Q: What sequence folds into this?
């Protein structure tokens, strides 16, 4: 059914509904007819000039509670993407924002969602704002980041993800939650059960939209967007914007403010990129010596089986390692991440399930034991380090048969890496990565402290003690996570 056009009004969220689109499929007039080359993204033209960026959070129209919480959380000045988009999102404008992970996207949309929802109360099963993300880990990280701010304005958050008890999440929605952070599959399940309705959702955020497209979630995402309140605000944030999100932008964003900052990991000046040429016969030993370095490291491999084999080898060599992939249960994944963050584990061996939505302080090295499948995977893997101004290195081990493909990948990523030929035990390998010989004494990683499963209402604490969760349960996503693609 075609919905009636909503005229320009001052909407009930306190912002201007500047000729908002009527909801459902709609080709934004601001996008025009410009076509980009295949595989590239042609950003829409903004008809209404955006409000200027701010230099301080105090320049924004936000409650004292939110401003005070920013100070308590140690957030003293807005990141560029926050400074540019918040004046417009707080005024009710649609936003199309690009920024690499770690650039401050969560608060860029989160503060606007909370500020514009504050003072309202949701009816049972009927949230007022929705944040859609592709994975469990990212869902829980967003929830954890926004929890202290939501409390300051008396808003209830609910996290809705696969792999966690559905009944607990249903009860949280029935009890009333103003803001829902959800993965598409589980939210659809709860809607099908009549535990959630989206009729009252006036603000919708899509975070990491390109990954949702890559994982095959677009049919679910568009079905959910068609159910939210007509004329509402939509914000789309992602580390990359390409043709995969073209339909979303054309259909659901109206006259958006477009902002791009830190367009790729290759533009991050605090990140070094190294391509290390290794011999096939020496790669295993080289990997082991890098893993034995002082400090934490994430090592990416293509398959679940390869991850498990390397993890077992590292443990037997004296390296405190743990595996993370789509074949692990959600409680296992949550415990493993907790161990990595608190230092019980120094090496996280993972498929691309860890390439997005995971933040670990003081992580200065990412190693591609298996080169990624494409430049987007490279950028997202590398985005685990050099976050929020910190420094870090991305190292890719390349055997002779992989050199040509890696050169093409780096060209696509617009990165000029430092290239070196290395061997295990050599000083050059140690200089670049901190590699050292392992102790050779087998280790057992201590069992983590017992934790209560998460997945219903908002957590009881803020940034400290984060325990991420994420989404599985969709066949294509599960297949891709096992093969090394994002999941």
A:
């Amino acid at each position: 059914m075609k919905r009636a056009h909503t005229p320009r009004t001052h909407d009930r969220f306190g912002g201007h509904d500047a000729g908002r689109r009527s909801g459902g499929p709609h080709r934004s007039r601001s996008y025009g007819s410009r076509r980009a080359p295949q595989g590239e993204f042609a950003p829409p033209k903004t008809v209404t000039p955006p409000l200027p960026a701010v230099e301080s959070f105090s320049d924004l129209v936000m409650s004292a509670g939110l401003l005070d919480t920013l100070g308590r959380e140690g957030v003293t000045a807005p990141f560029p993407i926050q400074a540019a988009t918040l004046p417009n999102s707080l005024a009710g404008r649609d936003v199309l924002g690009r920024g690499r992970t770690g650039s401050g996207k969560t608060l860029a949309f989160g503060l606007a969602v909370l500020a514009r929802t504050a003072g309202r109360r949701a009816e049972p099963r009927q949230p007022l704002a929705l944040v859609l993300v592709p994975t469990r880990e990212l869902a829980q990280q967003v929830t954890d980041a926004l929890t202290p701010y939501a409390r300051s304005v008396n808003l209830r958050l609910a996290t809705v993800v696969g792999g966690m008890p559905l009944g607990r999440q249903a009860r949280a929605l029935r009890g009333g939650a103003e803001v829902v952070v959800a993965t598409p599959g589980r939210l659809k399940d709860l809607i099908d059960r009549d535990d959630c309705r989206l009729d009252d959702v006036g603000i919708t955020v899509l975070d990491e939209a390109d990954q949702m497209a890559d994982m095959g979630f677009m049919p679910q995402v568009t079905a959910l967007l068609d159910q939210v309140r007509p004329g509402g605000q939509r914000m789309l944030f992602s580390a990359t914007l390409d043709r995969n999100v073209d339909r979303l932008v054309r259909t659901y964003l109206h006259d958006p403010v477009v902002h791009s900052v830190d367009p790729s990991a290759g533009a991050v000046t605090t990140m070094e990129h190294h391509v290390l040429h290794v011999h096939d016969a020496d790669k295993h030993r080289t990997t082991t010596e890098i893993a034995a370095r002082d400090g934490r490291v994430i090592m990416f491999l293509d398959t679940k089986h390869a991850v498990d084999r390397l993890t077992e080898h590292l443990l037997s060599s004296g390296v405190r390692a743990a595996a993370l992939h789509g074949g692990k249960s959600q409680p296992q994944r949550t415990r493993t991440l907790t161990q990595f963050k608190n230092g019980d584990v120094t090496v996280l061996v993972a498929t691309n399930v860890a390439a997005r939505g995971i933040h670990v302080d003081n992580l200065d090295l990412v190693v591609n034991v298996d080169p990624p499948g494409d430049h987007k995977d490279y950028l997202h893997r590398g985005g685990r380090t050099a976050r929020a101004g910190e420094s870090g290195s991305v190292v890719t081990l390349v055997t002779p048969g992989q050199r040509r493909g890696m050169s093409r990948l780096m060209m696509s990523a617009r990165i000029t890496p430092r290239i070196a030929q290395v061997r295990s035990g050599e000083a050059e390998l140690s200089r670049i990565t901190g590699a050292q010989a392992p102790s050779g004494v087998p280790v057992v990683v201590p069992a983590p402290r017992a934790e209560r499963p998460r997945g219903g209402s908002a957590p009881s604490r803020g940034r400290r003690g984060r325990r991420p969760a994420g989404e599985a349960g969709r066949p294509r996503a599960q297949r891709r996570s096992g093969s090394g693609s994002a999941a």
Remarks:
- The longest helix spans residues 136-152.
- The chain has two domains: 9-263, 266-433.
